[in-house]
Amino acid sequence: MIDETYNVWLVIVLLGLGTYLVRFSFLGLLGRRALPEWVLRHLRYTPVAVMPGLVAPLVLWPAATDGATDPARLAAALVTLGVGLKTRNVLLSILLGGLTLYLGLYIGG
Amino acid sequence: MTIASKKAAYVRGIRDGAPFLLVVLPFGVLFGVVGAEAGLDLAQVMGFSVLVIAGASQFTALQLMSEHAPTVIVLLTSLAVNLRMAMYSASLTPHLGKLPLWQRAIAAYFLVDQTYLVSATEFERRPTMPLPDRFAYFMGAVTPVCPFWYVGTYLGAGVGASIPDGLAIDFALPLTFIAMIAPALRSAAHVLAALVSVAVALALAFLPYSLGLLCAAAAAMAAGAQMELWLERRRRKEGAA
């Protein structure tokens, strides 16, 4: 439970404002400036640099199991990755991964 | 002619963003449920999803407030989770940087993981796309994603605590991200970057404020860029020989 002492709207507004500034940073303030080649070369890798690192702890140490590695979730992640690599079909990989997860949770009781 | 190509780009954006609807919606529901369970009222839950519009940091803020963390820590930590968006912003600047300010202001508001990934991939694949088409494509990708974040949150706040734990809805986020990563592994450099990201993020997971993730991202970007340079040099040498 969130107790009464918080000014929740203060958190919402400041977090919203801060997040917007982060998103607006380069697009808004440095918009018309050309970026040098070495910067572009690094930025090419931003998606594959951020998302795997964001996901890995969630897969290995899910909060839903208090951080204990869960075979069902691990299997679901591997199936999603495998199907994604094989077919490049985002929706199909999520579906088969989700199916694996439910199957694993069912088998694991 | 240009209106037709703009419309086509918008439709293509919708099509490419559409798969994420099936994940954004339940994830929004989950946030609504968790927020309502934590004691927020409907306006506050919706306030988070409309003003912050960033799932991971919204969950972080809820979690920390439930743990009675000081407001400053709640803000710093939740904001740190969103620092990756500065990289998204920088990454899209070569493609969208010449748009009028009001369009860049709108694009910045809707710059979330899914819209970024979809449009960065598209802009990289079609470097000659006209500027207005790029904005149309981006807004196309936004259409099946962001509105459904609000809708999901609203539904979840209404449903409240009646969703059973057995649905394991928590794992929708990791599965989505993995499904997005796989098609982005286009070259050996991309694969190396992903592996470095995982290794460093796990090794530095003990660091507070998501600092481990930021280090992992920086190391992975450097690894990908260096690998690309190395592959280029090798190709050139082979060409010369």
How far the N terminus sits from the C terminus of chain B, by CA atoms, comes to 47 Å
Mean pLDDT of chain A: 87
Biggest sheet overview of chain A: none
Please report the total strand number of chain A as a whole number: 0
Characterize the overall form of chain A: flat
Computed CA radius of gyration of chain A, to the nearest angstrom: 20 Å
Estimated helix fraction of chain B: over 70%
Rg over alpha carbons of chain B:
20 Å
In the predicted model, the low-confidence regions of chain A spanning at least 5 consecutive residues are none
Total helices of chain B: the number is 13
Q: What is the helical fraction of chain A, as a range of percent?
A: over 70%
C-alpha end-to-end distance of chain A = 29 Å
* Strand content bin of chain A: under 5%
Low-pLDDT parts of chain B are: none
Largest sheet of chain B: none
Oligomer: heterodimer
Largest interface: A-B, 76 and 101 residues
The tally of domains of chain B stands at 2
Please give a structural write-up.
The complex is a heterodimer of chains A (109) and B (241). Chain A is flat and about 55 Å long. Chain A is mainly α and 109 residues long. Helix content of chain A is 72%, strand content 0%. Chain A has one domain. Chain A has five helices and no strands. Chain B is mainly α and 241 residues long. Chain B folds into two domains: 166 residues, no CATH class; 57 residues. Chain B is 78% helix and 0% strand. Chain B is globular, with a radius of gyration of 20 Å. The mean pLDDT of chain B is 88. The interface between A and B is large, with 76 and 101 residues.
What attributes does this structure have?
heterodimer, A: 109 residues, mainly alpha, 5 helices, 72% helix, 0% strand, flat, B: 241 residues, 2 domains, 13 helices, globular
At a glance:
Chain A has about 110 residues and is mainly alpha-helical. In chain A, about 70% of the residues lie in helices and about 0% in strands.
SSE topology sketch:
The complex is a heterodimer of chains A (109) and B (241).
Chain A: H1 8-29, H2 37-43, H3 46-60, H4 71-87, H5 90-107
Chain B: H1 2-17, H2 21-37, H3 42-52, H4 55-66, H5 71-81, H6 84-96, H7 101-109, H8 113-125, H9 131-142, H10 146-159, H11 172-184, H12 188-203, H13 211-240
